[in-house]
TrEMBL record:
BP terms from Gene Ontology: peptide transport
A Pfam family reported for this protein in Swiss-Prot or TrEMBL: ABC_tran
UniProt protein name: ABC transporter ATP-binding protein
UniProt KW Transmembrane keyword: no
Residue stretches making up the ABC transporter domain: 5-260
Taxonomic placement: Bacteria, Bacillati, Actinomycetota, Actinomycetes, Micrococcales
GO MF: ATP binding; ATP hydrolysis activity
Gene3D superfamilies: P-loop containing nucleotide triphosphate hydrolases (3.40.50.300)
InterPro entries: AAA+_ATPase, ABC_transporter-like_ATP-bd, ABC_transporter-like_CS, Oligopep_ABC_C, P-loop_NTPase
Length: 329
């Protein structure tokens, strides 16, 4: 199949003392092989909740209450539902089919092990026929792909800069040729120059290896450069899903438009950040209508009572009443 990941109706709740809080509601999207899908939203929009749910890294009190996440292996085997997969089967997929790069590179690398040895371990664990020498050679090659010189293979993580550690983490995630890599703000800890180098490398590696990426960030400008398509999240829902070009040129949701105007593109000089006045709604007390209504410059009467659902509009999707009224924001 041409699809590597098929997320359908995913709902995640935080169970607490009172009423459970919906952090993700009815999230649905499909990812094509080799595609980079960006997920963008402010903090509290549910984007991190979403990816911890779909990679099964979530911890209580977060619970997936509905939906499925079908992963389609390349070899034509039956798709598996990541939400319901046994821990043993899930472990078998990790690194070889599905890799995860999280915010802090430090956590992914073992501080008391030489960098190269960590690659050798990962490679040989998944291919027991690989010789030690071949694994070291591959480790040095992988580091080279992210611009880290081969002699660094003998260094310990603390001897590397933050940017190098982050690039090494990405290379490690790709060592076993996964079909899907999930990245959560992998460049937040590094400066802008390093960030751009890392993104360029991700694109280059994707061309070489052909993996698909789900890339989560609060920074839309970064996704405009990196992603093929972008899903915009607000109050736990996808409110717009479109190609990066469409998001940049013709955002359909007023929130997407606000986000686009909040961040200058990476190549442009930083001028004034417009920002979006107000803050996201409290998930414990969501309004009955559109969750963006209080901040929306185009709010209409029906927005206060009717929740807009994500609906297709010419090859893209948007959840906003303006579009069945035929109004462009
Ligand atoms: Fe604004 Fe109404 Fe669209 Fe919500 S549904 S984004 S309030 S116009
Ligand atoms: Mg986060």
């Amino acid at each position: 199949s041409d699809t590597v990941l098929d997320v359908d109706g995913l709902c995640v709740e935080y169970a607490g003392a009172g009423e459970p809080v919906r952090a993700c509601t009815d999230v649905t999207f499909a990812l094509r092989r080799g595609e980079i899908l960006g997920i963008v939203g402010e903090s509290g929009s549910g984007k991190s909740t979403l990816i911890t749910a779909l990679t099964r890294l979530q911890r209580p009190p977060a619970v997936t209450t509905a939906g499925r996440v079908l992963f389609h292996p390349q070899d034509g085997e039956e798709p598996v539902d990541l939400v319901r997969l046994t821990p043993r089967k899930l472990r078998a997929l990790r690194w070889t089919s599905l890799s995860i790069v999280l915010q802090s590179a430090m956590d992914a690398l073992n501080p008391v092990m030489r960098l190269g040895a960590q690659f050798v371990d990962a490679l040989r664990e998944h291919d027991r026929s690989m010789s030690h020498t071949a694994a070291w050679e591959e480790a040095r090659r992988l580091l080279g792909l992210v611009g880290i010189s081969a002699d660094r293979a003998r260094s310990y993580p603390h001897e590397l800069s933050g940017g190098m550690r982050q690039r090494a983490t990405i290379a490690l995630a790709l060592a076993c040729r996964p079909e899907l890599v999930v990245m959560d703000e992998p460049t937040t800890a590094v400066d802008v120059v390093m960030q751009r180098q890392i993104l360029a490398q991700v694109l280059r590696l994707r061309r070489e290896f052909g993996f698909a990426v789900v890339f989560v960030t609060h920074d839309l400008s970064l996704l405009l450069e990196l992603a093929d398509r972008i899903a915009v999240m607000y109050a736990g829902r996808i409110v717009e899903l479109a190609s990066a070009t469409d998001v940049y040129r013709t955002p359909m949701h007023p929130y997407t438009r606000g986000l686009r105007d909040s961040f200058p593109p990476l190549h442009a000089p930083v001028t004034r950040l417009e920002g979006i006045p107000g803050s996201p709604p409290d998930l414990r007390a969501l309004p009955s209508g559109c969750p963006f209504a209080d901040r929306c410059p185009a709010v209409m009467e029906r927005c206060r009572t009717e929740l807009p659902l994500l609906e297709p509009h010419g090859g893209r999707s948007v959840a906003c009443h303006l579009h069945d009224e035929g109004i462009r924001p």
